[in-house]
């Protein structure tokens, strides 16, 4: 049986935030003609074509600067990282190499790819979602049980 | 100039969406990924909201070769489902499940000054560099062509 954590459930802000993410991806697509895929934008900086450097840096600066600007007008919601440092190092490396081999992450495949009805992105999204669900299950209920 | 400014604004808006939605918080992400525990389905609404807007945007974009500002429309063309797509995505899912960070929220948490995000992002960039090095070695030894796209 699925046990829903009603006290944690925040459909309103989740939907609002989702719409904002969608608007960001939509504006980037319709104005600049590009897919807002974070792993691709970051990874492309490692072997950049010269005309590609500035817009990539600009997008990432916006993303990294968002919480800074947020704190000027309000309180930033908590960012709680439960994983320890060894786990974070392993996980970061896996996310880095995995998103490059898989050509995308939650934004590029999950949001943009599904929005353009790409079968390739659907396969990628199902692959990383399923693996993430299994991973959390194993960590919390098999190892941690 | 306009192009870069709009990139900056798109990044800001994207970041605001991550903050508002709760996706910026790994604990919230893991609460969503933990179906067998106390399940928090909120993040399904984030994806739903984003895709709702995205569907309209891509329906418009699909019919165009130039953006509304006259820039080339760069949509992915690769339709192949290769092993690397699946294996790469699974490695990503493994890392995502361990830490609760995917690339966007990790960069945002870095901007928020979270030390653990600094470590995660450094390792993530190392993983991306490893990919580039492996691929470069493959190419220089006459290996297969790169089948991935930059998106």
TrEMBL record, chain A:
Transmembrane segments: 12-32, 53-73, 85-102, 122-143
Species of provenance: Marinobacter daepoensis
Membrane topology: Multi-pass membrane protein
Keywords for the protein's UniProt record, in alphabetical order: Cell inner membrane, Cell membrane, Membrane, Transmembrane, Transmembrane helix, Transport
Family: Belongs to the TsuA/YedE (TC 9.B.102) family.
Superkingdom field: Bacteria
Annotated localization: Cell inner membrane
Listed name of the protein: YeeE/YedE family protein
């Amino acid at each position: 049986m699925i046990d829903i954590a009603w006290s944690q459930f925040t459909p309103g802000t989740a939907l609002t935030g989702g719409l904002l993410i969608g608007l960001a991806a939509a504006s980037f697509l319709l104005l600049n003609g590009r897919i807002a895929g974070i792993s691709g934008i970051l990874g492309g900086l490692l072997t950049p074509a010269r005309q590609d450097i500035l817009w990539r840096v600009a997008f990432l600066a916006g993303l990294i600067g968002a919480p800074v600007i947020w704190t000027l007008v309000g309180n930033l919601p908590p960012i709680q990282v439960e994983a320890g440092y060894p786990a974070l190092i392993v996980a970061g490396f896996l996310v880095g190499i995995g998103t490059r081999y898989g050509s995308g992450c939650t934004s590029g495949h999950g949001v943009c790819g599904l929005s353009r009805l790409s079968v390739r992105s659907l396969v990628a999204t199902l692959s990383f979602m399923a693996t993430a669900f299994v991973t959390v299950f194993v960590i919390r209920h098999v190892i941690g049980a | 100039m306009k192009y870069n400014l709009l990139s900056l604004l798109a990044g800001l808006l994207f970041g605001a969406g991550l903050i508002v939605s709760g996706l910026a918080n790994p604990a919230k992400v893991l609460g969503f990924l933990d179906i067998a525990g106390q399940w928090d389905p909120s993040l399904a609404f984030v994806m739903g909201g984003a895709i709702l807007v995205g569907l309209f945007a891509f329906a418009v974009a699909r019919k165009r070769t130039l953006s509304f500002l006259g820039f080339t429309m760069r949509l992915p063309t690769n339709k192949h489902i290769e092993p690397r797509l699946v294996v790469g995505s699974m490695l990503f899912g493994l890392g995502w499940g361990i830490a609760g960070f995917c690339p966007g929220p990790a960069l945002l948490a870095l901007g928020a000054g979270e030390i653990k995000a600094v470590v995660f992002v450094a390792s993530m960039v190392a993983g991306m560099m490893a990919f580039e090095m492996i691929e470069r070695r493959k190419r220089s030894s006459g290996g297969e062509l790169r089948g991935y796209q930059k998106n």
